[in-house]
Amino acid sequence: MLEPFGKDEDEKFALNSELFNTLKRGTTLVEYSSPNIAKKFHAGHLRSTIIGNFIANLKQCLGNNVIRMNYLGDWGMQFGLLGAGFSKFGCQEKLKQNPLQHLFEVYVQVNKEAEHNEDMMQAARDFFRQLEQHESEALSLWQQFREITVDEYQHVYKRLGVHFDIYSGESFHHHQAQEVVQQLQSRGLLKTSEKGTGVVDLSSTGDMSSVCTVLRSDGTTLYITRDLAAAIDRKEKYHFDEMIYVTDKSQANHFHQLFHILLAMGHSWADRCEHVPFGLVLGMNTRRGEVVFLEDVLDEARARMLHNMNQSKTTKEMDNSEDTAEKVGISALIVQDFRGALQSDYTFDWDRMLQAQGDTGVFLQYTHARLRSLIRRNEGVEAVIFDPSLLLEQTSIAILQHLLRYDEVLYQSAQDLQPKHLVNFLLKLCHLIASAHRELPVKGSSQDVAQARLRLFSGACSVLANGMRILGITPVDKM
After folding, report:
1. Residue 42 designated active-site
2. Residue 291: pLDDT band by 50, 70, 90 thresholds?
3. Is position 431 annotated as part of the catalytic site?
4. Residue 427 carries which DSSP code?
5. 0.90 exceeded by the pTM?
6. Helix (H, G, I), strand (E, B) or coil at 290
7. How far are the Cα atoms of 46, 289, 324, 380, 463 from residue 305, in angstroms, in the given order?
8. What's the rounded Cα separation, in Å, for the pair 243 and 461?
9. In Å, how far are 58, 225, 401, 411 from 331, measured between CA atoms?
10. Is 45 among the catalytic positions?
11. Which one of the listed residues 12, 24, 39, 316 is annotated catalytic?
12. I need a labelling partner for 384 at 20 to 30 A (CA). Which of 240, 310, 365, 391 fits?
């Protein structure tokens, strides 16, 4: 079992297990993160981002061709408000200095104003109509807002170690949404409600007891109409074998309706679309108060971690302690989020999340750094050939047996797309490694015993690092 680790094949460990022969491999499209332009990127978007990234990483390591898509909320009435609001409250200078902050401030101001000012509401409707009709002035302002926001987000994603193959958005599909309405009509699925809206009857008896609105009374399309268009367009463009949407659980009904209507339109592939729902994060505050931007959370995680590292007696001298603190802080965020079932709500807790002792991302990173340090200190000891009969202590056997479960854990994760299996597996591995450090010294042992133990530690280190990367965590070599 420890053979591959001596031949630089550690990346592939457990991945050629027969267990995976039953899994369908093909093209998987994962839609995740999907923030709204000019609105705050809050805790829910953070969850979608890291969960979607985990699912994409897992599918990729199991041999699927993965397309990572960010579907931006970049269309709709909010842009009418933003466009109208910007001409009154906006400032190009502030927009350049701190784009997300400024757009958010304008959005808050214009919403307040529109509550009691009908003229402002009318201006918003006019601006959105200009957008829908592709008038150049409205369009170029919209384009500017979108580009600035995507640039800013890319910076945040880079810090999180997340990347996307495609930045799509509702705006790409507002024309196609009208075609979807025509297809619904020609199939006899579109009905008109008493209010004059266009609806699709979802009831099993056909008595309109459950309907989904796809068209406003003024003929403009809604979010679900654009989602229908997006799904059909993606199938034609990317020929996916499965499509996974990662959003909070409040949208469960939306996706139920979406898949139902796609099937009714004759798209049998809608059966291979899946919604992965997640719960709320409660109490995510920083020292400055309620979280508005994800940047604030990342900054705070880095600052707190740096403080903890400076206080700790075991912290190693390193060239870039801020970078290490950032990586460790982010792994703490991820592990706290992934420990339970995704659908559960959880309470955000800075202190518990950043503990070095305890089942945290900090503990995973600390264990990895300690193993890397052990391997560095013993360079030259490790041999290609080692004697496995020297690993008969209970501690060694416990680690070996645990590593042999890695393929089962990945298989289970692929079945239900829950990261908790892998998190718990890695935390248990770290506890076993902590015992092994005490009970299986490399230093001071005879050469053949040292070689065998070192092989065991480097095998464990490889699996730990690979598992962390699937979770979306960048392992650190020193801390």
Report:
1. yes
2. low
3. no
4. H
5. yes
6. strand
7. 19, 19, 9, 34, 25
8. 33
9. 17, 37, 26, 23
10. yes
11. 39
12. 365
